[in-house]
Model the fold of this input.
Amino acid sequence: MDKLLVIDDEQSILDLLKVVFEKQGYSVKSALSAEKALKLLDEDEFDLVLTDVKLPQKSGMDILKYAKKTKPDIPVIMITAYGTIKQAVEAFKAGAVDYVLKPFDVEELKIIVKKGLKERKLKEENVLLKKELKERYSFKNMIGKSRPMQEIFGLIDKIADNDSTVLITGESGTGKEMAARAVHFHGKRKDQPFITVNCGALPENLLESELFGHVKGAFTGAVAHKKGMFQVADKGTLFLDEIGEMSPKTQVKVLRAIQEKIIRRVGGTEEIPVDVRIISATNQDLKEKLKQGDFREDLFYRLNVITFHMPPLRDRREDIPPLVNHFLKKHCDKTGIPMKRVAPEVINVFESYHWPGNIRELENVIERIVAIEERQTLTKKCLPDELLTPPEHGTQDQKIGPGFELDRVLDNQTVRYIREALSRSSGNMKKASSLLGINYRSLRYLIDKHSIKEER
Done:
């Protein structure tokens, strides 16, 4: 129930307003003087103040200024029988949301109060949303204790406040958009729009309209002017996902927009200035596309000012246990069930699996388990068959490309096979070494070298 404070030096007006707004479902408190009103403002919380301008001793303007000083989000509506343009301007400058003349129309006043309360709620929701977005895309929600992720966190921290273009590479499902949002919400543009455009999801003509907008009649179906995402993202960040899918024709227009900070709508002639930070992402090797002539060299170097690579999940296996806990909590909270436990054998399987779909695939597996499993402790029996079936030879090989490091790939393969052998032998070291074709001492050395947790 919204709570109103009504102030007037005429008791009949107070009685009228109290009856009217209580019938509307509001809680109403009243005051005959500014002194009592100021006291009530100190003692209680109100959602809206409705005050007469002319009061004995202190005026309604004093109430307005005090309310805006102590509780800046509270809407204040001024009522007066002696209104002047100068007085109205002064009230609006001081923060009043509306200015009503006596004798007022009760129905009109109801609408004004309802509008004032609605605007306050929208402001509160906006503040909460910004807070939620900032928390969601802060580093604590980008899970990663591994060295590659810690390096990315450090880089994001360094680049967030400047306007340089950023290119994020990595396989599908590695969290490229999450990283882009972290750059935006960690920097000086955090209170401005973050707009995402998937360049691979739209054909060429629709992508141009999506990016730059169009004028009425530009093509069949263009029945009205439309802003493009460059314009919508003005003062904020435009995230161009799957940039490698963009056609050469659109690449030319994007290059011009980045260089000159000007766009032109499809079918239009007006040049519109825009101020956006560009972050792009791709799961393709853009340098290879350059060689093939499928991507413009000048655009590539415009996008490639700051680059970082999101590692695949198989290259950051130490992040799997905290990711599992994060997704378990997320989906247990979402479905309103108690937090489930995970048996060590499940973590062992997760750490041995290749995760071709990366973090997105891991979250999907957790969501599925939470949805269908009734038991409190999750064991291997809860896991889908594809996680338990050994992959065919060669399916876990990483392709040579951005971020490839031979030593790390070989170390990961070694760790994977040791974990699989330990899992099959139920932690028996002699059996595991026999399965791997090495002696016990060599296995012990590799376990210590790679800090592999043994399942016994």
In short: Residues 194 and 237 are 5 Å apart (CA to CA). The chain is about 50% helix and 15% strand. Residues 392-396 have pLDDT under 50 and may be disordered.
